[in-house]
């Protein structure tokens, strides 16, 4: 078995022996260290001036010099994150040799990457270092013990394009930001590696032990109650709000990209992943004349304007949240019973949306519909959604009689929906052409807007366009406040 990702399949592990000369997690006294390509390899004769050394003896200069990915753009990105750091404990990216991983197992395959779980032998850098500060510090335990990480091998990334590098830089930026109102942050981005057999680059990120929200709903849907579901939504929209406030559009929100983090299945937090990375890495894709009109993603979660080639936006992210709300409600991936083809794309543009379940709380159903409005200007903002979800969470944890009606609607749904949906889930037949991984979507018929008005929807799925028309004079925030009876949203989130 070779030491590469290509030697792994769904049922096999790869165990890479630890090299004899691999550095340990401690240093000799009176040494400075430069993690670089050998992780925490001591730099016993570092003679750089004091301005390059942090209080713990970490040498930024040595670390930056040790980066050698074989790709000039990646070298520049990694070194840039290191140059902006002032301490070993800062969240800069590392160049991590492939030999640093063992127990590698394939856990997923998407349109633009293959995902693996692995053990990082050295472990990540510790957030805080214990012991006496200074250049004479013995510097014990600079890293954690071996940890599980996720390896995302980017397909055809040997010659990574400048456009993809920009998205990777944005992805790194998004991994650093955190909401001031909630402790949950996005998945940590540790560094970059490379498959030695193919030359494809690998993103090394935090491992989500409970997998995706889609997997959690599939396995345990009937056991979760609305208090937990609303908590997930609070986490998800908190992540999205921090991205939007930083000027970042996620562009690829679906249940497979919402990962569950936590020690216990019933006490997980939700984190958005793969921000902006639902695109090919190879320059050949970006050189075509049709690239600007190409659509990438998972069709059921794409807003109509994105299908029509207008590109992703903060408002299209909100549309995806609306579809995600319906999936959390039913536990069934949207449009799983039919092919994800031109016909579905046309019907989505005309107003087709996944069906709500019987017994859906009224406020929940109305908000999901509002998020899914075809007119982007009629959708709520991430800030409004966070306020509403937090409001619902508060209602679920209070016994005040004046708001019991809303709370009771969720409690009633807890009793009714699982039995109804479980029967549907058992009877449901998934189409082989229902695809829930990001891919290039080319719908020539949809790009001709004239086809939409001449196309009629059919089937049991709901058409929501009669609920909110494009001629409404009422603003998005007014609709929410009137329909949901909430106070004006002026708080700082």
TrEMBL record:
Domain Protein kinase: 101-394
Gene3D superfamilies: Transferase(Phosphotransferase) domain 1
Keyword Nucleotide-binding attached: yes
InterPro entries: Kinase-like_dom_sf (IPR011009), Prot_kinase_dom (IPR000719), Ser-Thr/Tyr_kinase_cat_dom (IPR001245), Ser/Thr_Kinases-Pseudokinases (IPR051681)
Keywords: ATP-binding, Kinase, Nucleotide-binding, Transferase
GO biological-process terms attached to the record: necroptotic signaling pathway
GO MF annotations, alphabetized: ATP binding; protein kinase activity
The name this protein goes by in its record: Kinase-like domain-containing protein
Species this chain originates from: Rhizophagus clarus
């Amino acid at each position: 078995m070779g030491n590469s990702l290509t030697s792994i399949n769904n049922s096999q592990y790869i165990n890479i022996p630890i090299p004899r000369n691999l550095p340990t997690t401690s240093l000799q006294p009176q040494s400075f260290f430069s993690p670089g390509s050998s992780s925490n390899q001591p730099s016993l004769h570092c003679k750089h001036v004091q301005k390059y050394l942090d209080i713990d003896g970490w040498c930024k200069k040595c670390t930056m010099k040790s980066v050698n990915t074989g790709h000039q753009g990646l070298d520049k990105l990694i070194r840039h994150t290191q140059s902006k750091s002032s301490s070993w404990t800062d969240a800069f990216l590392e160049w991590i040799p492939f030999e640093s991983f063992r127990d590698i197992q394939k856990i997923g395959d998407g349109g633009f990457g293959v995902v693996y779980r692995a053990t990082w032998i050295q472990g990540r850098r510790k957030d805080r270092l214990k012991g006496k500060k200074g250049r004479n510090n013995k510097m014990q335990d600079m890293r954690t013990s071996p940890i599980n990480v996720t390896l995302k091998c980017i397909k055809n990334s040997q010659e990574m394009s400048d456009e993809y590098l920009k998205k990777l830089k944005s992805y790194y930026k998004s991994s650093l930001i955190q909401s001031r109102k909630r402790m949950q942050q996005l998945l940590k981005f540790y560094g970059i590696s490379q498959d030695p057999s193919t030359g494809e680059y690998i993103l090394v990120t935090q491992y989500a032990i409970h997998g995706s929200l889609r997997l959690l709903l599939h396995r345990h849907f009937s056991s979760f109650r609305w208090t937990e579901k609303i908590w997930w939504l609070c986490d998800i929209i908190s992540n999205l709000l921090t991205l939007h406030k930083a000027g970042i559009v996620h562009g690829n929100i679906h249940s497979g990209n919402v990962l569950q983090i936590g020690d216990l299945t019933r006490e997980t937090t939700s984190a958005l992943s793969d921000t902006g990375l639902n695109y090919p890495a190879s320059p050949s894709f970006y050189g075509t004349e049709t690239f600007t009109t190409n659509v990438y993603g998972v069709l059921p979660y794409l807003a109509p304007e994105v299908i029509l080639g207008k590109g992703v936006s903060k408002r299209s992210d909100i549309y995806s949240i609306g579809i995600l709300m319906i999936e959390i409600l039913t536990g069934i991936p949207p449009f799983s019973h039919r092919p994800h083809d031109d016909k579905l794309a046309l019907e989505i543009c005309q107003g087709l949306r996944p069906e709500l379940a019987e017994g859906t709380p009224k406020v929940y159903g109305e908000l999901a519909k509002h998020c899914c409005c075809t007119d982007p200007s009629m959708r709520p903002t991430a800030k409004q959604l966070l306020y509403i979800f937090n409001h619902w969470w508060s209602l679920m944890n209070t016994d005040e009689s004046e708001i019991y009606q809303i709370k009771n609607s969720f409690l009633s749904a807890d009793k009714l929906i699982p039995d109804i949906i479980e029967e549907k889930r058992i009877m449901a037949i998934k189409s082989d052409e229902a695809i829930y991984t990001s891919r290039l979507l080319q719908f020539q018929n949809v790009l001709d807007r004239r086809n939409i008005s001449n196309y009629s929807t059919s089937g049991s799925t709901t058409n929501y366009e009669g609920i909110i028309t494009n001629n409404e004079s009422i603003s998005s925030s007014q609709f929410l406040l009137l329909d949901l009876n909430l106070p004006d949203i002026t708080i700082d989130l």
